[in-house]
Amino acid sequence: xxxxxLDQEARDAISxxxxxxxxxxxxxxLSSLGRxxxxxxxxxxxxxxxxxxxxxxxxxxFYASRIRALAEASSIETKxxxxxxxxxxxxxxxxxxxx
Length: 99
What we know:
Number of helices: 4
Mean pLDDT: 89
Largest sheet: 3 strands, antiparallel
Oligomer: single chain
Radius of gyration: 13 Å
């Protein structure tokens, strides 16, 4: 998330996250996906709305960074411009075992 201007509240919320939190957020993103393409912005919004209260201060761009991390780990497939959540599309990778 380097180079992105965040307010202090968002920076504090991100700094409080541990590995368990990241795994929980990643699982929430992955559980929102199947093999059909979905807009990344739709997924981030849904995950943010369903997130527990302790994550309410996390900005949308944090969730977008987790989507990019999942893509780098080959957990999800992507198409389009990752910087445009409205048009960027994601789905579970075929290797994730979902037909």
